[in-house]
Design brief:
By secondary structure, the protein is α+β, with helices and mostly antiparallel strands. Helix content is 24%, strand content 26%. It has 5 helices and 9 strands.
Length: 190
Amino acid sequence: MLKSGINQCWSTPIYKTQITLDQCEELVQEILLSTNIMKPQAEYDSGSLTDKIPLLKDLAIEKYSEFFKEVFSIDLNDMSYEFSSWLTGSQKGYSMNIHNHSGAQFAAVFYVLSDDIDKGGELVSYDPRANANRGYFGKTAEMFKPIEYAPKTGDVIIMPGYVYHLVKTYHSNLRLAVPVDIFIKQKKSS
């Protein structure tokens, strides 16, 4: 769990975990076979990558299960859910304006290829409380600052879908990041 900023004041679980480099390498191969990395997936395909790449679906289940168990003491297997996933822009100069993942209870980003350090592309998450943007100063200001995270290959970040965030412009030649939203339908019937 990231233990800074908004997490100190109000429980907003922003969770960091990892997948292995071997898993990343396999996902890179599958992404190259399943997508056109020259443009964002939404421009040419509305399908979910978790439906096309079984390893991605397995990893999404594994990481969301880990998240729900650690943060909420809930077993994901007790829930009915669906995933929506896609490839973000992967070319030099890509950025994403501030947004949230409306309708998804939680949003994850799998950083499958993100090795260039100090090349931009930071994920910036903002305090979700509308009244917490008042220009605090001194020691309290640290608690209300956005959380800025520079991802590395293998990182997985999970946060509530309502958290507004953006992606700063990145300057490396290629980065593969796959958001995976989870839509929880209801508790499974016994």
